[in-house]
Amino acid sequence: MFGKKIDQLADTYSKVKDMKKNMAAAQKRIALIRVNASAGAGMVDVTVSGDGVITNIKINKELFEGDDVKMMEDLIISATNEAIKKSKEAMAHELKSVTGGMDPGEIGKMFGLDGD
Asked: How many domains is the chain built from?
């Protein structure tokens, strides 16, 4: 009676250990992912890593020649938000491949990947 339950518990524990190891590997791959987004027909380009870190911002020098600071700010915000959105999608895709289709947000929280 207890033997079967102990075997099931041991199997579950083994699967959790494997998943944790796979999640650690996924975290490393996620940090290497780079996504780009641009705004203003390429006037502003932002690169973000898979784990949400802004790694590069390029601003076309023509934007500095104008007096419209508000437009430049809006383009930077727009490109940054789009790059962050793509980054989150890339991270979710990577986590989904590790979790076998389980909700990556919930699984990520179990392993400290909630992003907060």
From this structure: 1
Domain that holds residue 89: 2-110
Whether residue 116 lies inside any domain: the answer is no
The CATH code of the domain that includes 51 is 3.30.1310.10
Q: Beta 44-49 vs 34-39: how paired, if at all?
A: antiparallel
pLDDT tens sequence across 66-79? 888 999 999 999 99
Taking the C-alpha atoms of residue 10 and residue 104, their distance in angstroms, rounded to an integer, is 24
> Residue 28: helix, strand or coil by DSSP?
helix
Rounded-to-integer distance, Cα 87 and Cα 51, Å = 7
First to last CA, the chain: 44
> How do residues 3-36 score in pLDDT, each as one tens digit?
787 877 777 777 777 778 888 888 899 999 999 9
